[in-house]
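hiii so um. not sure if this is the right channel but i have a protein structure encoded as tokens and i wanna go backwards to a sequence. like what aa goes where. can anyone help
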């Protein structure tokens, strides 16, 4: 027994020796009123972190630069690309600590600047900077590692107070470089849209759950939860040890950005379902992973994950381009069990997967024969459609539909379902017929939509220094009533089509004059999700089979600052004649002026003007 205790003691002694001693940075309990100082130190953020304890009780001035961290902290930023700089300022009177970060990316791309203010900060403050947790003050994260990539990539840093005009009066109790072993954490779950391809069939999901769990500082486990293929549950598939390259985020609220990649890896099956049992896969079975390619960025996840089930490949696409979702409100008619019901202000949710299939949900269905109670959400999945301009056209039969959350099990499943109609812009007209509990049922949402009129003519598109001429371009216009017209233009700014509403008035001769001032259209191109096009007409009207439109398309609201994000589009000939004897006035100007919102001006105005010359070139003009 004595030998055993001796062996254990020796083992712990060996482990203690193996752990590196903290490296002292600077001078403990350092204090010098209004003095500048800087301490240099070496660090490897994959194995180490920086820690400091700073006593702010001795501070007395406004905005004291109590500490900075970076490659060179003498200035706001200093001559090295890429590089990052953390500057923190304390005001004793308000007990506020302002943390600023500057990231110099490269000479062409410029500088990210973040700022966060921490309130009720006083006395001893702990500071730590690590690969896993980024910058923390008193144990709370201020910036994560993704935001601070260009400081964390450094091998040599400086800590001290040299930036700005207000020096530090803090007391620096200690600063150290210490070992930072990886700490296991729980998975972060993302709910997003996904689709699986398996045995030449597709399965779509609007709310799939994808988990990400770090397995080391540079690798993650990716958990595809409740994988369901062609209606059969496989289970959870955990892809192991996916390489995660840290990328820099942007903006005050940005989080770590990881590029995730893997080739020829493995996955583990858990919560095995019926499909797993059918394939002879037990709990914990290992699956071969072909590849992983994607990213994790704040609240967003996107990627392609491929693994094998026997000899069949399963491809999972998460957060893919082309997905969109919209809600439309209108009236609902339901006929069932010899009773009819009309219901106002019902909601249709249209989820478009961008590959010719969609999911349609009618929220909180009602039936007069069931006492007009909430019968759940009528859900029809994998509905094929065709596109006609801005219109999604449906004409399909032999579906099943489900009343999700229905209080009646007998009415939950519908069979022999057919769906016909159109969804366009914020309008929809759908007719659904089927059987519920062996009885016929009919559902009608919305009102029939007018057919869009398609105009064909020459189109000129000016974007930055580029000019494109299209001889047989088309614009479709649909009259939605009450003076609202839906315009659809195909193949613009990287989009298959953009659709937006304009106001229209018709004169006694039948000429319609259109107005639009920053009409909006959601952007779907990768990287622009959540942004909008803003479309303004300088001049637009139609008569008979002729349309003239002079418009400005602003990508994301950046057109005034960046010419490549501005599109100047002219469709048709402004001088069209021979239509009921009406001739539109010609515009012979060779130079055109626009304000920052893209509205056409007759002459330059004070402030910023966008000028389009006769040769198509676009430039800014400031008039004082």
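sure thing!! here u go:
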């Amino acid at each position: 027994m004595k030998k055993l205790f001796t062996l254990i003691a020796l083992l712990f002694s060996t482990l203690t020796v193996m752990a590196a001693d903290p490296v002292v940075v600077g001078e403990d309990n350092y204090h010098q009123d209004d003095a500048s100082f800087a301490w240099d130190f070496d660090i490897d953020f994959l194995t180490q972190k920086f820690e400091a304890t700073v006593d702010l009780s001795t501070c007395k001035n406004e905005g004291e630069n109590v500490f900075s961290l970076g490659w060179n902290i003498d200035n706001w930023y200093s001559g090295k690309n890429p590089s990052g700089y953390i500057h923190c300022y304390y005001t004793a009177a308000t007990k506020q600590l302002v943390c600023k970060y500057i990231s110099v990316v490269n000479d062409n791309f410029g500088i990210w600047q973040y700022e966060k203010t921490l309130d009720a900060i006083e006395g001893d403050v702990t500071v730590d900077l690590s690969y896993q947790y980024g910058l923390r003050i008193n144990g709370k994260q201020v910036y994560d590692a993704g935001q601070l990539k260009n400081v964390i990539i450094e091998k040599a840093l400086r800590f001290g107070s040299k930036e700005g005009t207000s020096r530090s009066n803090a007391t620096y109790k200690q600063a150290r470089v210490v070992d930072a072993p990886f700490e296991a954490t729980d998975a972060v779950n993302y709910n997003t849209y996904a689709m699986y391809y398996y045995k030449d069939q597709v399965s779509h999901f609007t709310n799939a759950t994808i988990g990400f769990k770090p397995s080391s500082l540079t690798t993650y486990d990716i958990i595809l939860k409740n994988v369901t293929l062609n209606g059969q549950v496989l289970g959870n598939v955990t892809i192991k040890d996916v390489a995660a390259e840290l990328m820099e985020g942007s903006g005050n609220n940005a989080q770590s950005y990881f590029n995730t990649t893997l080739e020829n890896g493995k996955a583990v099956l858990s919560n095995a379902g019926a499909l797993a049992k059918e394939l002879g896969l037990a709990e914990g079975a290992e699956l071969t992973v072909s590849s992983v390619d994607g990213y994790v960025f704040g609240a967003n996840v996107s990627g392609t994950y491929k693994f094998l089930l026997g000899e069949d490949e399963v491809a999972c696409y998460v957060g893919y381009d082309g997905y969109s979702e919209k809600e439309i409100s209108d009236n609902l008619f339901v006929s069932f069990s010899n009773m009819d019901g009309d219901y106002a202000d019902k909601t249709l949710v249209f989820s478009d997967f961008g590959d010719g299939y969609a999911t349609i949900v009618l929220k909180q269905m009602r039936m007069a024969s069931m006492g007009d109670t909430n019968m759940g959400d009528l859900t029809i999945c994998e509905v094929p459609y065709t596109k006609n301009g801005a219109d999604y056209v449906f004409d399909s039969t032999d579906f099943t539909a489900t009343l999700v959350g229905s209080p009646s099990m007998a009415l939950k499943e519908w069979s022999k379902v057919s769906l016909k109609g159109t969804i366009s812009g914020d309008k929809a007209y759908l007719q659904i017929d089927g059987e519920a509990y062996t009885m016929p049922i009919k559902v009608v949402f919305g009102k029939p939509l007018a057919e869009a009129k398609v105009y064909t003519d020459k189109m000129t598109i000016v974007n930055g220094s580029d000019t494109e001429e299209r001889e047989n371009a088309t614009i479709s216009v649909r009259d939605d009533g009450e003076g609202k017209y839906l315009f659809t233009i195909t193949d613009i700014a990287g989009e298959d089509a953009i659709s937006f509403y304009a106001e229209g008035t018709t004169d006694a001769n039948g000429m319609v004059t259109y107005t639009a001032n920053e009409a909006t259209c959601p952007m779907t191109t990768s990287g622009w999700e959540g942004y909008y096009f803003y479309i303004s007409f300088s001049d637009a009207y139609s008569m008979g089979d002729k349309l003239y439109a002079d418009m400005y398309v602003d990508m994301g609201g950046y057109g005034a600052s960046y010419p490549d994000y501005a599109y100047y589009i002219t469709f048709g000939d402004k001088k069209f004649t021979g239509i009921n004897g009406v001739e539109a006035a010609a515009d012979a100007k060779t130079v055109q002026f626009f304000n920052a919102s893209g509205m056409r001006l007759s002459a330059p105005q004070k402030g910023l003007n966008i000028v389009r010359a006769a040769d198509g070139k676009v430039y800014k003009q400031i008039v004082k």
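oh and The chain has four domains: 23-179, 188-318, 351-446, 453-623.
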